[in-house]
Amino acid sequence: MLVLGLETSCDETAASVVERCDHTGRLTERSSVVATQEAIHAPWGGVVPEAASRAHAERWLPVARLALERAGVSLRDVSGVAVAAQPGLIGSLLVGVSAGKALAWALGLPFVGVDHVVAHLVAAAIDGDPIPLPAIGLVASGGHTSLLRLGADGGLTLIGHTVDDAAGEAFDKAAAILGLPHPGGPNLEVAARGGDASALRFTTPHIQDGLGFSFSGYKTALLYAVRGAPARQDDRGRIQPAAPPPLTDARRADLAASFQHAIVHALARGLRKAVEADLAAGEPAKAIVVGGGVCANAQLRARIEALGAERGVPVRLPDPRHCTDNASMIAAAGAERLARGECDGFELGARSISSLARGYRGRPAPARPTP
Predict the structure, then answer these.
(1) I need a surface site. Which of 83, 131, 191, 230 has the fewest CB within 10 A?
(2) Rounded to whole angstroms, what are the CA distances from 1 to 79, 233, 294?
(3) CA-CA distance, 313 to 303, in Å (whole number)?
(4) Under DSSP, is residue 76 helix (H, G, I), strand (E, B) or coil?
């Protein structure tokens, strides 16, 4: 089965062709093309939604054509079209959803809307063996930080999430506070090299029995360390706190290392709690699956690998190029749905939120018309 995937959920225009083996369930990437928008959004220090959607509208067709060319196939060889339908920037999503519907309708192919969060986990199975189930999953990206339980039947249950900032969002905001360029997360990781991770200590909040996350406090603590704490009022009048030390290159490295350590610790702690909860319930996970842009961070990958080795649970991490937004994970997740006999109708719309809480299972796939 060959599936063409389109990804336009935020600021990357991507297309990919993924093949799923009917006998083994193995997912193989045949091609992957990503047109980044970093240069478009860099002057603003973040993604501008209207600019992102306009760029998607201009780029999706040439990107899709190049993906098919690199895969050595034509549209007539494709078994289905998968698109990122949720969650994300609504204007950006609409471009990919509309394009996918047009292709599927014109070719008489099944159309599949994919949840972007789910796709981040499926990315760990690309060019590898299927993920053993049940499993515990962590998605950590610029817009999402979620802990999930993957059931033996392939069903997903949300068991923990952030109550404010996502981990990747926190990295981006921290980078801005430290005067680092966009994209913030990768540049903060570079700045942290050689820094002292104990220079600034953060308090890890305990939320939802350790399965929830909160990152806004980390950002505030870093802001005070860089710019100084705000003046406070007491019985004797206003007191102006001492000015913070100058933000030298050495201090920037120390603060970046400290912030990175705190975020990684919080994510690893939540993942550990989830694995231990499953073990206590008598349903031990057969794998730890991680996805999302933040899991490209080398320190986080090392901590998760260490956790898996300690608990005796295999760890499935996607290739770093499959951590950030890409269409291969969309095509792969779409192929899994098609293999289960699911697809969507053309009435499916884009949604800014994830479908995890809704438990949507799709509809039977129609038979492919005979040429």
Answers:
(1) 230
(2) 6, 67, 30
(3) 13
(4) helix
What is each CA distance from 199 to 111, 196, 252, 333, in whole angstroms? 52, 6, 10, 42
255, 179 in Cβ contact below 8 A? no
CATH architecture of the domain covering 2-127+324-364: 2-Layer Sandwich (3.30)
Name the fold adopted by 135-230+243-318.
Answer: Nucleotidyltransferase; domain 5 (3.30.420)
Separation of alpha carbons 283 and 276, rounded Å = 10
Residues 6+ apart with CB under 8 A from 314: 132, 286, 287, 288, 308
Q: Where are the beta strands (DSSP E) in the chain?
A: 2-7, 12-20, 27-36, 80-86, 111-115, 135-140, 145-150, 156-161, 232-234, 237-239, 288-291, 315-316, 342-343, 363-364
Q: Decide the pairing of beta strands 232-234 and 342-343.
A: unpaired
Asked if 59 contacts 40 with a C-beta cutoff of 8 angstroms, the reply is no
Walk along the chain (371 residues) in steps of 10 and give the mean pLDDT of each run: 96 95 96 89 83 94 98 96 95 96 96 95 95 95 92 88 93 95 92 96 84 93 91 69 87 98 96 92 92 96 96 95 95 96 94 66 42 36
Distance from C-alpha of 104 to C-alpha of 243, rounded to nearest angstrom: 61
Whether the Cβ atoms of residue 156 and residue 119 lie closer than 8 Å to each other: no
Structure tokens at 242: 């001492």
Contact 219, 174 (CB under 8 A): yes
| 342 exposure class (CB count in 10 Å sphere: 0-12, 13-18, 19+) | middle
Q: How many residues does the chain have?
A: 371
Q: Beta partners for 146?
A: 139, 161
Tokens of 81: 């079209």
Q: Where are the domains of the chain?
A: 2-127+324-364, 135-230+243-318
